[in-house]
Fold this protein.
Amino acid sequence: MSTSKARNLLIIGVIVVIVALILTYPRFFATTEIELYFSDAQDQLLVVETRDVRRNNLYQNTIEELIKGPQSEEVGVTIPPETEVIDLEIKDQLAIADFNQELVEEHWGGTTGEILTVYSIVTTLAQFDEIEQVQILVEGEKMKTLSGHLNLEQPLEVDPQLIK
């Protein structure tokens, strides 16, 4: 093959790669602004922090951002940072959020701490029109409670009284 032919093929190949990246960028890397609910400075209520999240796998990315914790120092963490999302699916306006065991094992406990953890998840997911309720699972199983204070056996809805 001549060098000019090889050079032309290389240029065409580079152009194809660039076009492919441009065409896939919006689908995989486009973001949308979402609301994450964290604890207020007094650890009594939920406050909102907005963040841009990738649209690809939006619900899971949203909860992963919640697990990362707040960006503001005036807002408190609600989920142990060791927690991971195993699965998150939506069925008939119900979000089923399955977490690893660290959600329970690393949780700091207390009635208010448990309520803020659970409702930070519920309120964050319920911002999406297609979600009205959230069922929290740990390792694929329903839990009676996270740390002894709040019944998690049934799906939960947003509690507006917990939002500042």
Q: What stands out?
A: The two ends are 70 Å apart (CA to CA). Strands lie at 31-39, 46-54, 85-91, 94-99, 133-138, 141-142.
